[in-house]
Amino acid sequence: MPTVRRICGSGAPVRSAGRHRHPVTAGERYNFMRFRGAAGLAAGMAVVVLGAGTATGETRTPGASPGIQIVPGPEDPLEAQFVPGATNVVPPTAAPATDIGKKQVQSLAAPFYACSGFSGIEKTNPLANLYVDKFQWGPYAAYKVGNGGGNLNWASNPYKNASWYMWFHSLRWLGQGIIAAGQGNLTALTRVNTIAYDWYRDNPYSWKANVGAWESTMHRTNVLICLRQAILSGLKVTTLPTRYAWLDTALLSHARFLTNYWSGAWNHGTDESIALFGVGCTLHRTDYKNLAQQRFAAGITTSIDSQGATNEQSTGYASFNYSLWGRAIAVMQNCGVNPGTTISTRRALLAKFLTLATNSLGKLHQLGDTEVQSTYPWVGTPLEYAGSFGTKGAVPPWRVGIYSAGYVFGRTGWGTDAARGFTGESAYSIRFGPPRAFHGHFDHTSITYTARGRDIIVDGGYAAYNAGAYRTWVVSPSAHSDLTTPLSTYLNPTTRLTASSVKTNAESYVFSDAPGSGISRVRSVLVLKDPDLLVTWDRASAKTAQAFQTLWHLPSDQRARVYSRTTAIAAASGDTTKTILFQVPFKQALPAGAMLVKQARTNPIQGWVYPSSFVRKSAPTLMLARSGTTASILSFVVPVRSTGSVTYTVRQSGTTFIVNLNVAGKTTSIAISGGGSLYRVR
């Protein structure tokens, strides 16, 4: 049985000598983005009473408390998002909402701010570990961070990992102990109170110089609120006992910090505003609630734009923001504040965005800092249909979406054709727009594509910040399916969509930018239905000789083989689908080495995918190569059945170049006009 430490009159634990008082700045930034399934997404939509769990330790008599109430918040992305030495602030750029808190809530039970849970961090930190001061996060072994009696070394960072360090300071790992304390387990209550007080005493205001403690303030604030509720529940009292008065002082200190240091209009700033509102609701501080409402109003219109796209350049973070703003609505309503309609309107637009961002495998297109993740089927929204493979909800009325934030999403349909079904449709994404920022990558003009129930063209994925050269690569143009110029320095340009056409059996788009000094790049994209295939025409010019490489990143389960300068085939063993990739000479002869496969290369890095932050897989990358001062690369990506074939002929009709295709028995033609338009003929 672990020793129960005595609590002094102030609620402060008896302290051991030899304090560790040397906090350090966290080491290399580390990303572990894990929007972990459906459980964490039901943010603010239902109250869950946690009282069924068991815990060892001393328990109150005559009977245990039913426990604290938890309105689960979305499970936060697990990576540390703050950059040491940076402001980490995203200023609002759009006009604020004007309707938040302007109307009275018509009817309400006693206002409350429920414990938001522990974001899943608590799952690997059982009571037994808390009793011996062990903390576990991510792939790392549990580490003893204290002396075994609740006297912790808050400078601990054994794995030199910013995310480990940030979550250590968040205190979310105390979750199982707080839940048990709320049920009347006094041993658990003593230990979590001791550790939380230890943090408070060892990290006096202001802790901004410690980036891990700074970033985790919002998380820690919520944990302290949960602890406060556990004390009331576990002790079966209605007011905080004097010996725990330090907790309210700590909450005021955290509210002061949140007041002075707001991260602005992105997910972190929203989380901070929710936590500040929570302190205001818990301690009956109208000033904190009002400031939080002002920040909600300032942040919502920048965080989610008028089309429904977020400013974070990541489909995964877009999904997280949908959940997060749902929680913002719920906490305001629960504490007697009318959230207005702007937030719900923008969330509805974001739901449309996420619906269109869902591929034919029921997953989000993996764009920016996004792990491979399924679309969550939010009931009553178009996401219900997209996230359930079309088994629930109404068929979305949109098939193509073009967003000025830099996204094109399209699909052949929603599976209403029984011959296709949901997964038999094709779906694609194309990136363009403003320069890379936040959680975005250098992925302009890149494409992802699913068809025939599988991935066809994939993104390089999402590598953690501590992945070193692989993180640099996965963000770079070389990790995406685009035209690259690897001998030049990438300039992070704005990429313009200069033309688009949407028809029932084909969509076409034209993008242009200047990816390097003295280099111009134009990509025309044509997406066909029946037969389903992609066509791209890349052309580029440069003032000095360059290497021009059109890249096609293929799934890790496939192997690719080059058959000639024109043709390669990618397939997985035993699969019913293969992908035929070929290029047709147009305005430029094909040189030797015009088509290459790169896989599992380390210098330079090429031929990998990251389905998640900790997982890197070898995967083939097809490279269509040119050199000189100009390039014209006309390429086709054609998924067919494993026994299918593709043949083509070319002809000139006046100034128009025509390619006639036979795709596994289905015929079609595409053309490039003398003026440079790429389109479907039949």
From TrEMBL:
The keyword Lyase applies. The keyword NAD does not apply. It is found in: Periplasm. Keywords: Lyase, Periplasm, Signal. Its main location: periplasm. Residues 1-21 are annotated as: Disordered. GO terms for molecular function: lyase activity. Residues 429-587 form the Heparinase II/III-like C-terminal domain. It comes from the Bacteria. InterPro entries: Chondroitin_lyas, Hepar_II_III_C. PANTHER family: HEPARIN-SULFATE LYASE. This is Heparinase II/III-like protein. It comes from Kribbella pratensis. The lineage of its organism: Bacteria, Bacillati, Actinomycetota, Actinomycetes, Propionibacteriales.
